[in-house]
Write a structure and sequence with these properties.
Oligomer: heterodimer
Largest sheet of chain A: none
Radius of gyration of chain A: 22 Å
Helix content of chain A: over 70%
Structural class of chain A: mainly alpha
CATH class of chain B: Alpha Beta
Shape of chain A: elongated
CATH topology of chain B: Glutaredoxin
Distance between the termini of chain A: 27 Å
Distance between the termini of chain B: 8 Å
Number of domains of chain A: 2
Largest interface: A-B, 24 and 24 residues
Number of strands of chain A: 0
Strand content of chain B: 15-25%
Shape of chain B: globular
Number of helices of chain B: 3
Order of helices and strands of chain B: EHEHEEH
Strand content of chain A: under 5%
Strand order of the largest sheet of chain B: 2-1-3-4
Largest sheet of chain B: 4 strands, mixed
Structural class of chain B: alpha+beta
CATH architecture of chain B: 3-Layer(aba) Sandwich
Order of helices and strands of chain A: HHHHHHHHH
Chain lengths: 216, 80
């Protein structure tokens, strides 16, 4: 692989030997690999996300009741992360549109809890089993909280609210606009996490190079 | 004109949008009041579900995205 060869080239060029060589190789190779995977996944996911604006989610959930509604809300929650600053307008928009209270809560609970980009990255890092556990428990927690808050009658705390009509046309964006949005957002996210990847993989590289295997 | 950016305090895109708007207004010497509304129920009352919301003279122009400075400039100047 090209990253592997590049990492070997770097440690060769620096003339590194022994544990330092192993650590440096690990650091360069894994940083590049993880950033490449993250870039591809985040770009893909942000592109897909442009197909699921909150207004559309609301329309999908409209008229659904009982188990289908909760399950659908949880699944839509996974594919549509939103900025936490939109929680209140989304909640009001859904309740205002007559989506049952419990289903709305399920959507709001699952959305920030399960990140679909993580679902792609985690299997390679922690294995399929833990990733599945993460997804299933997130969905279960979301569905249970929606269902139980509904059964406990918490909807009585929701004030009457008239959700307005914005007049903003939410026209289908063109493919170009979707790609542009995905590009801008992926760039922003990647730049934000680069330092963490560098430090995190650096810690891994140190362990890889210097800690005896029996200790790990 | 009156420009209102809807977005709560913790939303960095919303704060950035207000700053960009102010920069555009200042550069073109536009007579505009740029304010930020942090009460999200007001945004919902306008029928918008995603932040930031961008309103010029009671017309919600866009929401849920942050246009580039150039785009924002044409959005504002074409409404003069």
């Amino acid at each position: 692989m090209v990253f592997e060869r590049f990492a070997t080239y770097v440690v060769d060029a620096l003339g590194l030997e022994g544990a330092l060589r192993a650590a440096a190789h690990f650091w360069v190779y894994d940083t590049l690999k993880i950033l490449a995977i993250l870039t591809a996944v985040i770009f893909g996911v942000t592109y897909l996300r442009t197909y699921f604006p909150p207004e559309k989610i609301r329309d999908y959930l409209d008229g659904k009741t009982a188990f289908t509604g909760y399950a659908l809300a949880a699944l839509l929650g996974i594919v549509s992360p939103f900025c936490s600053c939109s929680t209140i307008p989304i909640f009001l928009g859904m309740v205002g549109a007559g989506i049952p209270f419990g289903i709305t809560i399920t959507f709001l609970a699952v959305s920030p809890m399960i990140n679909e980009a993580a679902l792609f990255v985690l299997p390679g890092v922690v294995g399929l089993e833990l990733t599945a556990l993460y997804a299933v428990s997130g969905i279960a927690i979301g569905m249970t909280s929606g269902y139980s808050l509904n059964r406990l009658g918490f909807d009585r705390y929701v004030n009457e609210f008239e959700f307005g009509d914005s007049g903003v046309d939410i026209d289908e964006p063109t493919r170009r606009e979707r790609l542009e949005e995905a590009y801008v957002e992926a760039k922003e996210i990647i730049l934000e996490i680069v330092p963490y990847v560098l430090v995190g993989v650096g810690v891994g590289a140190f362990i890889h190079g210097y800690l005896p295997e029996q200790m790990v | 004109m009156n420009i209102t950016v809807y977005g709560p305090d913790g939303c960095s895109n919303c704060t950035a949008l207000k700053q960009t708007t102010e920069a555009v207004v200042e550069r073109h010497d536009i007579d505009a009041d740029v304010t930020k509304e942090t009460d999200m129920t007001k945004l919902a009352a306008k029928g918008v579900m995603s932040t930031p919301g961008f309103e010029i003279d009671d017309e919600m122009v866009f929401s849920g995205s942050t246009p580039s400075e150039d785009e924002l400039e044409s959005i504002i100047t074409e409404r003069l």
